[in-house]
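thought: fold this chain, then report.
action: predict
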Amino acid sequence: MAKSPKILIVDDEERLRDSMKKMLEMDCFSVSTAENGHDALEQLVTKPFDLAIVDLIMPGTDGMWLIDKVNQRQLDVGIIVATGHGSLETAVKTMKMGVWEFIQKPVDYEMIKIVIKRSLDRIYTLREKKALDKKMVLQNEELRTANEKLLELDQLKNNFLSKAAHELRSPLTVLTCSMEIMKEDLMSNELENLEAYLDNALTFTKNMSNMISNMLDINLIVSGNIKVQVNSTDIGEVIRETAAGTKALLEKKEIALALKIPENLGEPSFSKERISQVLVNLIVNASKFTDKGGQIEIAVKDNDSDITVTVKDTGCGIPPEDIDFIFEEFFQAGNGEKQGVGLGLAICRKIMEAHNGKIWAESTLGSGSTFHFSLPKRSES
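observation:
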């Protein structure tokens, strides 16, 4: 049911106020009254009204004072002047002040109902226009923000492609050189260094494979559509298998790997492939920023509602100004020559979100970094 229009009658004559109030209430208007401008302003500020019917000549704060205050405060109310002391000059003056209608007393009730209907149509139209204007402003702001985000993503993608091309070119160059040397050695029957060159070729091939896998995940990152198929799995076994797969990489850098995996862990539901991908990213990332002779430790904690896996290194750490952004797409921490293309940690975050889990990091510059991720024991997906 529609609300009754709210009208405030402002007049110092009590008899006129009461009679007009009764007449309007019979036509289903919600009516309040005030005997002077000050009383009226107090009500207009604290309660919503559609129209105010205002007498101009009142003791103390009069109608002109009230109209001026309404304009100053930009109150959302239409003003109708009803006065017995009006003149053409007064009517023109009040109209210039924003008054919508000017009625001479004694009031003709049929006429005032016509004026009220006309004024209500006007106030409702103005309010609808304001609401539409506000909606358009919000939509334009949202569109502007979206365009800025698209431009930012476009720039990030351009930077990514440039960086990715460079990152792929380097191992390809090494791989090509290794293959050429192996070919020459084979032709000259010099085989003593062949195994070393093959090892180099395999290492760089694996690096490129990981990089290409990350690149293929870029659309999934931007769209947020990384999907996982979960099964109840032994998280400890997955960690041991994944760690074994990184053994050659870590031995080459002379980085020790320690595992702290308690027995009888709960079995959360997760995608073995995707969680292994998270672990590989974290281990490779840790090895990248850990010097020869350093250590990486993987620990598991069995909590009441989840299992938390921690990957801790003794590397260079993350600058404090970067720690809040390292899981963003394409972000590269300020670590100079050791930067990648800025996808690995973003992929980890998306994978953990797809598992209804969390991933976060702690670091002290110069003292290493610690990455944690948690898997709920019962999948909510």
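thought: worth noting. The two ends are 43 Å apart (CA to CA).
final: tokens above.
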